[in-house]
């Protein structure tokens, strides 16, 4: 049997250490994610770390350091598909980016363990936990700092409800107001409603707009004949 010919006790013990380290460190990362009730929790992070470690360890045994380097590059790109599965878009908001990044980092921990760099894997685990745990108070502090709209980068949308018969004229008038205010529209969507009204949605090109400017635009648009209601909203960009 080929197994008997290729089995080496020292190599097997080395693989055992690598996978055990990946399992233990992945558990530490995953436990924190599970406690935060993230979509990719304990088992997912452990499996990512174990899988990365197994692929790199196998490449090390078959093709040496050069083979391991190639496998690591494939792990880095391949884990992106798994990370994309936990990223969700809800309206204009995107969720799951931190979870995807944690999975990517868990793969790096597994790759380090698979390459017999257990100390480096443990160090990286510490940094991941520090990022997800100890930086949270700093994130909350920054989020509570009041800033004006012009100091943030965001996506801005204006929602106009108008009479259907006046929709074309309203659309032209809105475009003129935005152009004169130097806030041109990136995209405009007009949808007819069964109640005789039309919904006009305008996305702005500019990503840095003062709240006062948006209020002025809404006021000006509200004076257009046939307009029933105007509101604006913004959402953070990555």
From TrEMBL:
<keyword id="KW-0472">Membrane</keyword>
<dbReference type="InterPro" id="IPR049177">
    <property type="entry name" value="MgtC_SapB_SrpB_YhiD_N"/>
</dbReference>
<keyword id="KW-0997">Cell inner membrane</keyword>
<protein>
    <recommendedName>
        <fullName>Protein MgtC</fullName>
    </recommendedName>
</protein>
<feature type="transmembrane region" description="Helical">
    <location>
        <begin position="42"/>
        <end position="62"/>
    </location>
</feature>
<dbReference type="GO" id="GO:0005886">
    <property type="term" value="C:plasma membrane"/>
</dbReference>
<keyword id="KW-1133">Transmembrane helix</keyword>
<feature type="transmembrane region" description="Helical">
    <location>
        <begin position="12"/>
        <end position="30"/>
    </location>
</feature>
<keyword id="KW-1003">Cell membrane</keyword>
<dbReference type="InterPro" id="IPR003416">
    <property type="entry name" value="MgtC/SapB/SrpB/YhiD_fam"/>
</dbReference>
<feature type="domain" description="MgtC/SapB/SrpB/YhiD N-terminal">
    <location>
        <begin position="19"/>
        <end position="140"/>
    </location>
</feature>
<feature type="transmembrane region" description="Helical">
    <location>
        <begin position="68"/>
        <end position="88"/>
    </location>
</feature>
<keyword id="KW-0812">Transmembrane</keyword>
<dbReference type="Pfam" id="PF02308">
    <property type="entry name" value="MgtC"/>
</dbReference>
<comment type="similarity">
    <text>Belongs to the MgtC/SapB family.</text>
</comment>
């Amino acid at each position: 049997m080929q197994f008997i010919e290729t089995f080496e006790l020292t190599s097997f013990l080395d693989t055992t250490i690598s996978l055990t380290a990946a399992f233990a460190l992945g558990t530490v990362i995953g436990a924190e994610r599970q406690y935060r009730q993230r979509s990719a929790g304990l088992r997912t992070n452990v499996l990512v770390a174990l899988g990365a470690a197994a692929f790199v360890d196998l490449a090390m045994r078959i093709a040496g350091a050069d083979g391991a380097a190639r496998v690591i590059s494939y792990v880095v790109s391949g884990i992106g598909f798994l990370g994309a599965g936990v990223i969700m878009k809800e309206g204009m908001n995107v969720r799951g980016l931190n979870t995807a990044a944690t999975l990517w980092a868990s793969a790096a921990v597994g790759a380090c363990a698979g390459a017999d760099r257990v100390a480096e894997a443990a160090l990286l685990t510490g940094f991941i936990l520090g990022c997800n745990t100890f930086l949270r108070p700093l994130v909350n502090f920054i989020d509570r700092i009041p800033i004006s709209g012009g100091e943030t980068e965001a996506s801005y949308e204006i929602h106009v409800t108008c009479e259907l018969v006046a929709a074309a004229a309203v659309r032209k008038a809105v475009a003129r107001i935005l152009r004169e205010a130097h806030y041109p529209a990136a995209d405009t969507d007009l949808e007819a409603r069964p109640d005789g009204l039309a919904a006009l949605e305008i996305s702005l090109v500019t990503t840095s707009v003062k709240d006062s400017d948006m209020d002025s635009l809404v006021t000006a648009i509200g004076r257009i004949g046939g307009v029933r209601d105007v509101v604006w909203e913004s959402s953070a960009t990555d």
